[in-house]
Structure formats: C-alpha cells, structure tokens
User: Which sequence fits this backbone?
C-alpha cells in the first residue's frame, strides 16, 4: 500500500524541518556545555570575562557545527533522499532516533570532558582511546569520584528521550511526510561538507585553529570535547609506555637535559626548569628554519667527513667561520611539523600521539614566542609557504608571535611573483624578514621558515642550475645553491643595516631531504646542519652529538632568560657528553657518542656500540625513560605551567592514562 506522501512542490521545503531541529538541538547542548565549563572552572577561564566567553561562543560555533555534522551526516542525508520510501514515518523516525543517539553520546562526552578539564586543565583527546587498558580504573572512578556526572548523563538521557519523542510527534503533525525534491541530496551533501570542514576553501579546521586568538584559555573554551577526541584520535594510536617507576624515568631525563645552573620543579612538571638570572645586554634573536637542508649538502660539514665539496653552500660555509658549527646535529623527526615542534617548544612528536597542529597543542607547551614575549621581546613569524600551510597562522598565534606573515604577505610587500608550485622564493622571503626586522622594536625575536628547497626543488633562473636538472637529486642540489645565495644576501643586508652585531642567529634545517647518501645508520636519516652565531660567541666546531630539541634551551641561555621554560633538550653551550632523541614514525632512536639504539616502544630493533665498553642496555633505558616521560607528561598536561597560570598539581596516581 502506498504511503500517504505529500509531493506538492510548493511544500517541498518541509523536508528540512526535521534535520533542522535535530541540528539545533545539538548546537544548543554544545553551547550550554561551553557556558557550564566557563562557570565550573573559573581558574581556567575566569580571566576571559564575559567578552572572552562571547568570543569563544561565536568562534566555537564553527567547531560545534563541524563535529555535529560528522555525527549526523548519515541521518541528514537519509532524511533528504527524494524517493517515496524516505518519506515514510518508519524511515524518518528511525533516522530521528539516530539523531537522539548522537545527542546522547555527545552529551556524555561533553560532561566527561568537563570533568577532565577540571582534572588536567585541557580537553580530553587521544588518551580516550587508551582507556580500554584501564577500564576497571575508569569504571571505579565513574561510580566513585564522578558518580554525580554519571547520574547527570542518565538524567539528561531520560528527560531528553521524552522531549525528543514529543518533538518527533510535533514534527509529524506540523510538517507531514513531505517528499524531498530531487536536488536535495546534492545540496545537503555540499552543506555537510562545508560544515565538517569549517570553511569553504583551504585546510579543514583542526584543534590548533581554536587557538588563532593567541589566548590559550580562549582556545580551550572555543573547543569542545567531542571535536578534540575525534581529531586527536584520528592522528594518534596510544601506546603503553610505563617502562619504569616514574621517579626513575624523571631522574634519567633530567640527568640528560638539566644544566648545572638550572633548577627543576617537582616531578609532575618533569622538564620545566629555570636558569640562574644573568645580567647583560638583551640581544635580538633570529631563528632560520631551512626547509630540507641535508648536512651532507653543506661543504663545511662534508669536509669534516672527508667528502669532496659540492660547491653548493659558499655563503653558509663562510658564515660557519663566524659562529659555532654543529656537524653532528640531528632533526627530531622527518617532517616539517616535527621540526616546528622541536624548535618552537623543545618537545618532540611522539609515537602514537598527535603532532602539532593536529592536537598536540591541547596540552600546555612552553613556546618560544610566548617565552620571549613575556620577557619584553617583540616577535614575528614568517613562512614562505601560504599563510595556512602547515597551519602556520594558528601555530604562530599559539606560540606567542605578535606578527605572522605567509607567502601572500611576501608577494604583497615585496611585489614579486611566488614560485609556481609552493610558496615565495627564499630571496623574497628573506627580504620580507629583513623588512620586519628593521621595523621591529628591539630586542626582537624573529622566526623564518624557508620554502625553495621543498619538492619539486625549483630555482628562479638558469644561473642557479649548477647541475643539469635531469634528476631529482640534481634539482635538489640546485635549489640548495639558490637558497644559499639567498641566505648570503640576507646576512649581507643584516650587516649593512646594523642589526647583525646584536643578534643571535640559529640556522637549522627542519628535516633532511631524504635524497643524500645514507651511511646505513638510522641517525643519518636525521643528519642536518646547525649553526649558531651570537655576540661574544667564539667561532668553533662542536663535534658532539646534538639535536633540534637543544635549540630552545640554547636561545634561553644566550638571551639570559631566567623565566621558567620546558624543553627536552639542553643548551648547546653547556659542556659535557650529549645525545640526541629522534622519532621516525613509530620508531624512536637514541644516539650517543658510545652507540645508538633503535626501538619500536615495545622491543629493541637495532643497536650498535661504538666501543667495547658501551652499555647498550643503559642507552636503551635512557631512550625508554624519554618516551615514558614525554608521552605521559603530554597526556597528563604536565609539560609546562607558566608562573602567571600555575595550577595545583594533580597526583599521578589519579590519572587514568597509560
């Protein structure tokens, strides 16, 4: 028997009624949860005031709508189908109950997340996926400490059930069973795509985009728990990392990173520490992150290895004679985001955990820009790629940089056309960096991320084609030659403009290109150049093993900053033996003078001793201590707490994470 279907085209709009009130019900619950979060934890959000709440509510609507659209997409599409069966009461009611299940699940996550914010001072993320290993602990906490929250979820479910059923009956009486027009699935699909992405063009929104205001508290209030869980878990696979007692792990890590004149905090902030105050002039600081520079593309380093020169880097080689060159320097990872994380906050990308821009920033990290800005430095950040590439705009704001520019700004201010495939030419990006430096209030902190040495390895003119561009390696070498020429022009300008002498420069690559010859060891896959030039720093070559994680502590040292900071490295200027921690996907590597160990966080995969006296077990233990402390500190939000926002410590034993 045919269902009683209203197919009058004048009333075809009625099909939107049910999806509309389902979506609005979700958004109302998410908005209410944000207000409750603001009122429940004044220590985290009270500083924002009503103006901050209003901004977070408006900005948060985009994040709420995105996660709601993800959960409701099947129901909304099903309710828009233009066939007669889709207008039947049974079909429409079934998908309405899908919407109710989505609302109940979202509410449970919002309430649980609200409790978690009070405990860890951030939204829940990837650690939710690890709770299956602590299910007994989770159940015990639910029926004990958080019983009111569980009862609240149950009460909401009962009340919402009756209200939902009432709305469904009202909807059926008021709007009937209108047949959707044939164009409705396409329009609905496009609307869902825009809602899920959070924008019409560019990268889809992620966790880091909530922090574009530069305020951590406002960013947390803008976010919601379900969005954080979804996006963090998509980029992570939690691992069990408890290899030794917490005190032993912390002691091991501190033994590797603490300098003699640094004072550490308690064990619940394992890597936060402060240096002894030091008087003296405050220099400018310029960090140049070089895209895909291999150590063995630099003749100053090749010569130390007995390799013939390539002739690609005469300007870098000349600069190396003015500072301290680190020919055994290592990237913390193999992606630009790994380099961003290591240099900007001294923290590595970890196996099974999200990287920066994809949820890592949910935990409070000690960022370079914020640290220097608090001490009075003006700050700017420039990347040669597009403004939203690598989510650089949001990362720069979160990291405490006052001014941010990308390729579009370089093109506008320099009046030069960009590269065909990637971003601004290095020479133009450096010219814009120099313009920002000249206009910045001194002392300033500048950060520039270059572009031209990114695949497909382009050069602006044939004069830079030292090698025939007939293969990728030759094109890469040509791009290095061009980048080196651009770097030389930048330093010539800095000297000519008078700000070179009072500036600390750190030139370091983000990662290797993957094209240079490997010596067969895992460490060679992380081998990059690093050069430090600073006022009063005698030129030298330091052959010790070092890494990107040492950059932030080095800048704190050279700038004389006594404010607390957090990093998994140690100042390059400190004496003594050193080592490097490197991450390659799910593999972790510890490189020391006496040998190296490669691990998959479950078992040792490879190891090699440099001397007969090498204790590889000890190297492995230091590696596992690093993984344990870094992972658990990130999950527990126990990396960094600035003096102005210190929160009470949370006993480790109460944390349901592994």
Assistant:
């Amino acid at each position: 028997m045919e269902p009683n279907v209203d197919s009058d085209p004048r009333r075809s709009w009625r099909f939107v009624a049910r999806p509309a009130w389902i979506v609005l019900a979700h958004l109302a619950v998410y908005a209410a949860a944000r207000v409750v979060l603001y009122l429940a934890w004044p220590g985290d959000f009270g500083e924002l005031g009503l103006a901050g709440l209003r901004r977070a509510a408006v900005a948060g609507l985009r994040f709420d709508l995105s996660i709601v659209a993800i959960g409701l997409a099947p129901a909304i599409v099903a309710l828009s189908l233009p066939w007669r069966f889709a207008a039947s009461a049974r079909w429409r009611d079934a998908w309405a109950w899908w919407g109710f299940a989505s609302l109940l699940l979202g509410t449970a996550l919002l309430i649980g997340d609200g409790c978690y914010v009070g405990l860890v001072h951030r939204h829940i993320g990837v650690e939710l996926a690890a709770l299956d290993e602590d299910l007994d602990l989770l159940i015990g906490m639910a029926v004990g400490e958080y019983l009111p929250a569980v009862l609240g979820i149950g009460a909401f479910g009962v009340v919402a059930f009756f209200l939902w059923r009432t709305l469904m009956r009202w909807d059926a009486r008021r709007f009937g069973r209108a047949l959707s027009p044939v164009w409705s699935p396409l329009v609905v699909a496009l609307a869902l795509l825009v809602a899920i992405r959070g924008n019409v063009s560019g990268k889809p929104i992620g966790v880091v985009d909530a922090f574009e205001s530069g305020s951590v508290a406002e960013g947390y209030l803008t976010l919601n728990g379900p969005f954080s869980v979804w996006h963090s878990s998509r980029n992570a696979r939690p691992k069990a990392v408890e290899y030794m007692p917490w005190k032993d792990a912390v002691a091991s890590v501190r033994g590797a990173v603490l300098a003699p004149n640094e004072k550490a905090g308690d064990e619940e902030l394992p890597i936060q520490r402060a240096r002894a105050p030091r008087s003296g002039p405050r220099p400018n600081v310029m960090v140049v992150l070089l895209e895909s520079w291999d150590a063995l593309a630099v003749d100053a380093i090749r010569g130390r290895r007995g390799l013939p020169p390539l002739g690609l880097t005469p300007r870098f080689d000349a600069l190396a004679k003015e500072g301290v060159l680190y020919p055994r320097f290592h990237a913390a990872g193999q992606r630009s985001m790994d380099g961003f994380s290591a240099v900007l906050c001294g923290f590595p990308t970890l196996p099974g955990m999200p990287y920066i821009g994809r949820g890592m920033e949910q935990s409070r990290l000690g960022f370079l820009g914020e640290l220097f800005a608090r001490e009075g430095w003006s700050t700017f950040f420039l990347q040669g790629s597009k403004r939203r590439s690598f989510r650089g705009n949001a990362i720069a704001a979160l990291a405490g940089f006052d001014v941010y520019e990308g390729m579009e700004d370089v093109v506008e201010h320099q009046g030069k056309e960009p590269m065909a495939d990637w971003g601004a030419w290095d020479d133009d990006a450096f010219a814009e960096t120099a313009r920002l430096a000249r206009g910045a209030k001194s002392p300033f902190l500048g950060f520039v991320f270059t572009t031209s040495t990114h695949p497909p390895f382009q050069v602006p003119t044939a004069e830079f084609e030292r090698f025939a561009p007939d293969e990728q390696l030759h094109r890469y070498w040509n791009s290095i030659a061009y980048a080196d020429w651009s770097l030389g022009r930048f330093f010539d300008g800095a000297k000519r403009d008078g700000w070179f002498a009072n500036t600390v420069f750190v030139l370091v690559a983000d990662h290797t290109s993957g094209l240079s010859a490997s010596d067969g060891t895992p460490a060679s896959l992380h081998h990059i150049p690093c050069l430090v030039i600073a006022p009063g720093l005698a030129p030298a070559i330091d052959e010790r093993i070092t890494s990107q994680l040492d950059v932030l502590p080095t800048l704190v040292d050279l700038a004389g900053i006594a404010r607390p900071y957090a990093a998994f490295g140690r100042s390059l200027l400190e004496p003594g033996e050193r080592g490097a921690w490197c991450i390659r996907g799910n593999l972790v590597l510890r490189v020391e003078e006496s040998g190296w160990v490669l691990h998959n966080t479950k078992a040792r995969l490879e190891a090699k001793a440099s001397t007969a006296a090498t204790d590889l077990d000890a190297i492995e233990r230091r590696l596992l201590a690093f993984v344990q402390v870094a992972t658990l500190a990130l999950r527990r939000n126990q990396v960094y707490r600035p003096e102005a926002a210190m929160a009470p410590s949370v006993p480790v034993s109460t944390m349901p994470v592994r």
Observations:
- The two ends are 58 Å apart (CA to CA).
- Residues 644-658 have pLDDT under 50 and may be disordered.
